[in-house]
Specification:
Elements (H helix, E strand, L loop, with lengths): L1 H11 L8 E4 L9 E10 L5 E7 L9 E2 L6 E2 L6 E7 L6 E6 L7 E4 L2 E5 L12 E5 L2 E4 L5 H12 L25 H14 L40 H9 L48 E2 L2 E2 L13 E2 L2 E2 L28 E7 L25 E5 L15 E5 L7 E2 L3 E3 L2
Parallel strand pairs: 16-19
Antiparallel strand pairs: 1-2, 2-6, 3-4, 3-5, 3-7, 8-11, 9-10, 11-20, 12-13, 14-15, 16-17, 17-18
Helix pairs in contact: 2-3
Length: 420
């Protein structure tokens, strides 16, 4: 037994930067089996997310590898250290913790509540209107940007994820919405973002929720999702429309737009759509572009505006000076929840399978409805319209769809997570 203990102590001494404890398994007469359970104290800054790395040659910076099978460790807002337990399977070398430097996009809390879904004067798949309830959730303030996508993608591909999108081929600026993302990519990326943020992923390859969805193309069903999980996911179609409408039912668009025709409530200064006339026409604008006022060629963030924005000629609207000076005002088109780009710029993936007749189904007005689950509905819902959409397709109620494998420069996404 002494020799066994010597061997184990030699093994555990490799964990020089941390500390460990030993658990002794059940034993029969004349036999002692020791199973090390390494208690690891991760110390860091409050709210930080850390990964464990291992190396047998710590002086070689290229030798450090991630500890396989271990998700990032998140310290809560009031924590500077946290203890986790690892089941050691053999000498792995020296351990160290490394902070993941990732700043999540700003999120907006969408309050729980009922809203009127659909539009009785809209397309057939938007009818009938129904009162629907959704719980509170957090949603990204804007669409996911190229910068954010790339940050998560680099980490994810080192941790077993694969994507169809090659971000090295991006042509837009880092503050534009990522495009060319399939539904599969958006789901897997959401899982990776969850892990980077120290949250539990919600998409799995099995109904028992034991294997995180990281690879390939899988037609996930409702049971593949941990709907009570803490991680990021695509919004359901009901959540998306609730968020888009804000607190006022019956609006055509995310801004004040009650009564009359939808055409009465949208001009080129409101959103990026086909022929809107903004400086990025026929392409994406930076996210939150329609928050900014334009004053004599200056944006409110101090950056130089393109020359053709100094006296803009926007679709359907003759811009008037705000005062005697040559200053032109664009309205702030965030809705009253504080969300931007819900109309135009790029279409956004939702979780739901698309059925043109779903609103006629009683399931459609259940609380927190998640759409149909039958494999016969293979297309996934797209919402919001794009820079090549007509104004009617930017309405809060307007529905579209695409194959889950579809990749287009008109399609992006944003994430939500449960408010718990």
């Amino acid at each position: 037994m002494d020799e066994v203990m010597k061997r184990f102590l030699a093994f555990s001494s490799l964990y020089m930067q941390l500390w460990g404890v030993v658990s002794v398994c059940a034993q029969s007469a004349g036999e002692l089996r020791i199973k090390p359970a390494i208690g690891v104290v991760v110390r860091g800054e409050e709210g930080g997310v850390y990964q464990l790395q291992t190396s047998s040659m710590p002086e070689d910076s290229d030798s450090w590898k991630l500890v396989e099978g271990l998700s990032p460790i998140k310290l809560e807002a009031d924590q500077t250290e946290r203890t986790i337990f690892l089941e050691a399977v053999g000498p792995v070398g020296i351990l160290r913790s490394v902070r993941i430097e990732f700043e999540n996009p700003h999120e907006v809390m969408v309050p729980a509540g009922h809203f009127v879904r659909g539009q009785k004067s809209g397309n057939a798949d938007e009818r009938p209107e129904k009162m629907v309830f959704v719980d509170s959730f957090n949603m990204d303030e804007t669409e996911v940007t190229w910068k954010c996508w790339r940050t998560v993608q680099v980490w994810a591909e080192k941790n077993g994820y694969d994507f169809d999108l090659d971000a090295d081929k991006q042509t837009q600026g880092n503050d534009h919405p990522v495009t060319g993302v399939s539904w599969y990519d958006a789901v897997k990326w959401s899982n990776a973002r969850s892990e980077m943020s120290g949250l539990t992923p919600v998409y799995f390859t099995d109904f028992a929720h034991t294997t995180i969805y990281k690879e390939g193309r899988m037609s996930l069903r409702l049971a593949h999702v941990d709907w009570d999980g803490s991680g990021y996911r695509l919004p359901t179609e009901a959540e998306w429309e609730r968020a888009c409408r804000g607190s006022i039912d019956g609006q055509f668009y995310p801004w004040p737009s009650l009564g009359g025709s939808f055409k009465d409530h949208i001009v080129g200064a409101d959103a990026n759509y086909e022929g809107s006339g903004d400086a990025f026409d026929n392409g994406t604008t930076p996210v939150k572009y329609f928050q900014k006022d334009i004053h004599a060629g200056k944006l409110t963030n101090g950056e130089e505006a393109p020359e053709d924005e100094e006296a803009p000629e926007m679709d359907g609207m003759e811009m008037q000076p705000a005062s005697d000076s040559e200053n032109y005002l664009f309205p702030d088109r965030g809705n009253d929840f504080g969300l931007y780009d819900m109309a135009g710029n790029v279409y956004e993936w939702c979780w739901d399978r698309y059925s043109s007749a779903f609103y006629e189904n009683d399931l459609s007005n259940r609380s927190n409805t998640q759409g149909p689950d039958s494999l016969e509905f293979s297309n996934r819902v797209l919402r919001g319209g794009s820079f090549l959409s007509s104004r009617v397709d930017l309405r809060c109620a307007a529905r579209n769809r695409g194959k889950a494998s579809l990749r287009s420069d008109q399609i992006g996404f944003r994430c939500v997570r449960n408010n718990n």
